[in-house]
Amino acid sequence: MKLIFVGAAHEVTGSCHFLEACGKNILVDYGMEQGIDTFENVPLPVPESHIDYVLLTHAHIDHSGLLPLLYARGFRGQIFATDATCDLCSIMLRDCAHIQMMDAEYKNRKNRRAKDAPPVEPLYSMEDAEGAIRRLVACHYDTVVDVCDGIQIRFTDIGHLLGSASIEVWITEEDNSKKLVFSGDIGNSRQPLIKDPMPTTEADYVIMESTYGDRNHPEPEGDFETMLADIIQTTFDRGGNVVIPSFAVGRTQELLYFLRKIKVNKRIKGHENFAVYVDSPLAVDATEIFTANRMDCFSDDAMALVKQGINPISFAGLKLAITSDESRNINFIEEPKVIISASGMCEAGRIRHHLKHNLWRPECTILFVGYQANGTLGRAIVEGAEMVKLFGEEIQVRAEIKQLRGLSGHADKDGLIWWISQFTEKPKKVFIVHGEDSVATAFAETLKIEYGQRAVAPYSGSEFDLAAGRFTYEAMPVRKAKKTPAGKAISGVYARLVAAGQRLMAIIKGMDGYPNKDIGRLADQITSLCEKYDDRK
Predict the structure, then answer these.
(1) Which of 473, 494, 514 is the last residue of a domain?
(2) In whole numbers, what is the pLDDT of the chain averaged over residues?
(3) Would you say the pTM of this structure is higher than 0.90?
């Protein structure tokens, strides 16, 4: 039994943990890194084709975004996730693949004007995303699932996102049994749409996030409905637009919940029929999935509306932009309006076009409603940047910049401490992950000194023997070295070739016992291929 920390170790994004147990290789999450990538992550301990299972805590891209790459490099195992997570991944992974391919196309178009610029390859393709989606296995909350001989899992609603879960993992090898709990991202309590996080009470080892481990969410100056209404009223009165960079999945649906209440309660005077544009095909699809999963995941307040026949995230004046033409036309509409668009950290997507059209206008408001990772455009704007670069053009920041503080999908420090305190007996070890460097360290110290927990914040590459209860290797932090675009492009293509070779080796090793004619036929095909490329030397 071995646990290796791969991603989101002293970093907030790129979650990935490797579990070796019962002769199986298992990943818990395989997420994409976003924002500044501070530390080097170790590679997966085994080739992608040797991974047997993935356990997925939720659909956010920093937890699921590399699953298509895993498939592209030979993974053909099963991905266990909740019903709603499977539904969301079916749209989010396709959307992520689309962004990868569009970004590569845009860069290649620019590179044609540059001498000797190498072609840029997307990280993965739509076919890879489709392949990963086909590997998803939907599981119900609170149901024990037999993964394989010796390993069982159970998903518990953790209240962070529709379908999000902590995962209990029971492992039995010979006479040795251990229970692990992976917290995933722990949700904030009293969110408008989804249920509060549910606790877990027993574990030998806990792997726990720490995004807000050094601070509590600020007390809001009022209720969110009132604060949002005041911002809209002030902005509309001066003739501007309210532009909201928002995560397409989760935060957009919460905003629609508040906006419906503002409309119903007639909170905006003089602009009663104002339009709200959701400019994100992903957000539109996700909103439908939220509605479809309402019975399992919605909070009591939201369900009270559903029982009255009211859709809590729909209202008069809500307009959905699907096509590129519909998106472009929004900025030619003169009436003041609310524009909700992804991505939430302004790193990609249609929001960048809306910022280009509205950031320079002092009558407009750019309203941030979520976490802005270090190194993102959203973080720069929030921290007071006077100029930003969009599509190669310098844009002056003259719009009013506002934040709705406290509206977070993550538990704050008190919420994290509440969750870990629900265990009836202190775990043998609590591993702190998914937090910025200083935050993860500080939260581990807090749990250790103030609450008597056996807490530690390991770096990427650290290995822990679960049976013996000790580290077999404690990695030191390795700062990320910058890579040139050319090197990245070449290594990406070559990595796919290496992965294909690793997958072939996995197939060969698994053919012992096959009929001789099948083995001989494959050997002849490999020999023929080798001779073809030997001739090209």
Answers:
(1) 473
(2) 90
(3) no
